[in-house]
Specification:
Order of helices and strands of chain B: EEEEEEEEEEE
Oligomer: heterodimer
Largest sheet of chain A: 6 strands, mixed
Largest interface: A-B, 23 and 24 residues
Order of helices and strands of chain A: EEEEEEEEEEE
Distance between the termini of chain B: 33 Å
Helix content of chain A: under 10%
Strand content of chain A: over 45%
Radius of gyration of chain B: 14 Å
Number of strands of chain B: 11
Shape of chain A: globular
Helix content of chain B: under 10%
Number of helices of chain A: 0
Structural class of chain A: mainly beta
């Protein structure tokens, strides 16, 4: 079983739609959580950290459920420019190792 | 440009040859990471350094792979006796942080390896 699992998609949604991605992690000693965005043939870049109480950044909302060991990302009012792969990332307590999920591909259609 | 830089950006080699990649992290970053990424997959952890100390190496990594960060600044990743399965994008990332903190990872543009 992979340490961080995501539905690879692709998710094809129309502009303006709301879309949600989930990610599950297997290590209960996971400490910090992030969503990274990766455009085609580019390097990953931090989208947002995920805090225990949930957090929002503009159209993006991230939530963490430690009991069920999953993280979610909600994108409201999707834009064409949101088309990318969204990577779920987890660090393990006591290390500085970042573990990436497979990524979920999103394509926003005009 | 003060971001993470990697060299070479592309490398084509024949099976059995050795290759070396270099990564220059953001100058004040004390942690440096190597990842490998293949098409349709997320970055796979290879190893990481805190200053010059290599703190962890993936168990999936064969002994043909070795990484160094001799002075706690730039790092090299060497692959000996390359195999076709080594073909991938090799990504370097760096971060800063004090003990117990996990901050943002900043990635370089990667070094793409093709083994013929």
């Amino acid at each position: 079983r992979k340490e961080v699992e995501q539905d690879p998609g692709p998710f094809n949604v129309p502009e303006g739609a709301t879309v949600a991605f989930n990610c599950t992690y297997s290590n209960s000693a996971s400490q910090s959580f992030f969503w990274y965005r990766q455009d085609c043939r580019k390097e990953p870049k931090l989208l947002m950290s995920v805090y225990s109480s949930g957090n929002e950044d503009g159209r993006f909302t991230a939530q963490l459920n430690r009991a069920s060991q999953y993280i979610s990302l909600l994108i409201r009012d999707s834009k064409l420019s949101d088309s990318a792969t969204y990577l779920c990332v987890v660090t393990i307590w006591g290390t500085y190792k970042y573990i990436f999920g497979t990524g979920t591909r999103l394509k926003v259609l005009a | 440009d003060t971001g993470v830089s990697q060299d070479p950006r592309h490398k084509i080699t024949k099976r059995g040859q050795n290759v070396t990649f270099r990564c220059d992290p953001i100058s004040e970053h004390n942690r440096l990471y190597w990842y490998r990424q293949t098409l349709g997959q997320g970055p796979e952890f290879l190893t990481y350094f805190q200053n010059e100390a290599q703190l962890e190496k993936s168990r999936l990594l064969s002994d043909r792979f070795s990484a160094e960060r001799p002075k706690g600044s730039f790092s090299t990743l060497e692959i000996q006796r390359t195999e076709q399965g080594d073909s991938a994008m090799y990504l370097c990332a760096s971060s800063s942080g004090t003990s117990g903190e996990t901050g943002e990872l900043f990635f370089g543009e990667g070094s793409r390896l093709t083994v013929l």
